[in-house]
Design brief:
With about 250 residues, the chain is α+β, with helices and mostly antiparallel strands. The protein has 7 helices and 10 strands. The strands form 2 sheets. Strands 2-3-4-1-5-9-8 form a 7-stranded mixed β-sheet.
Length: about 250
């Protein structure tokens, strides 16, 4: 997917109307997404609009972080090109990256991160309320896309929690001039709801982070499996990485 990039803008109702008005001049229509947020990341979609209802759609439990975040109730515009929108100086830029982490955590570290006090305090109330259908979904996906070890659903859920935990309180990151840049700590098969990191619902305080598409984004947004993407504020694109890599 050479040259992949997306520009993302969080907007309230009034700001959204202004965006719609600007797009009318170019005869461009936003395609609304009301069920699966990551579908707005498809490269074939020129401009998508993720409605607030999408976060309570197919991935309801997994995307429930939206409802308790500062983004709750807001609309998300996702575009293949920058839009001439005033007042969005900290819009999000997603780009394909050749980033490869020096190290990923072993399972004992995964367990510690998932059980950490900071993660347990911040997780949504429905995060641990697993629907039985999820196990079927993940087993099928795991077997279809090359899981090498035996499928262990409880272990996979631990990875999901640990991955989000690393963007809340990073233990695995690289060090930049501007601070830490956390990264996804598992492959696509062991990653969940990457839209939360792509769209800065989680980890928005970091000027740059590296995010692997989750299995859902691979399936519904057609993003490449196990590929890292850089996620930054548009005004932080020029951030330079120090050569030192850190993982505590």
């Amino acid at each position: 997917m050479p040259g992949y990039e997306k520009f993302c803008y969080w907007s309230n109702q009034k700001e959204l109307e202004g965006i719609r008005e600007n797009l009318k001049h170019g005869e461009i229509t936003m395609v609304e997404e009301a069920h699966i947020p990551c579908r707005a990341l498809r490269s074939s979609l020129e401009i998508g609009l993720v409605l607030p209802s999408a976060w309570q759609g197919f991935c309801n439990r997994r995307t429930s972080w939206y409802g308790s975040s500062e983004k709750a109730g807001r609309f998300l515009v996702v575009s293949n090109r920058p839009l001439p929108i005033s007042g969005h100086g900290h819009s999000i830029l997603i780009r394909e990256s050749n980033f490869k982490p020096d190290r990923l955590p072993v399972f004992e570290e995964i367990r510690e991160m998932a059980k950490s006090r900071s993660f347990q305090k911040k997780k949504p109330s429905i995060w641990d309320k697993i629907d039985p259908s999820e196990k079927v979904f993940y087993r099928r996906w795991f077997e279809r896309f090359g899981g090498k070890e035996p499928f262990d659903f409880e272990e996979m859920l631990m990875y999901h929690s640990a991955n989000h935990a690393n963007f809340l309180d990073p233990r695995f990151f690289i060090l930049l001039e501007a601070g830490k840049a956390p990264y996804s700590i598992a492959d696509s098969l062991h990653t969940c709801s990457s839209c939360l990191e792509f769209f800065n619902i989680l980890g928005g305080e970091w000027p740059l982070k590296y995010v692997t598409a989750c299995s859902g984004a691979v399936r519904y947004a057609r993003l490449p499996q196990d590929q890292y993407f850089s996620v930054s504020a548009c005004d932080s694109v020029g951030i330079q990485q120090k050569t030192q890599r850190v993982s505590e």
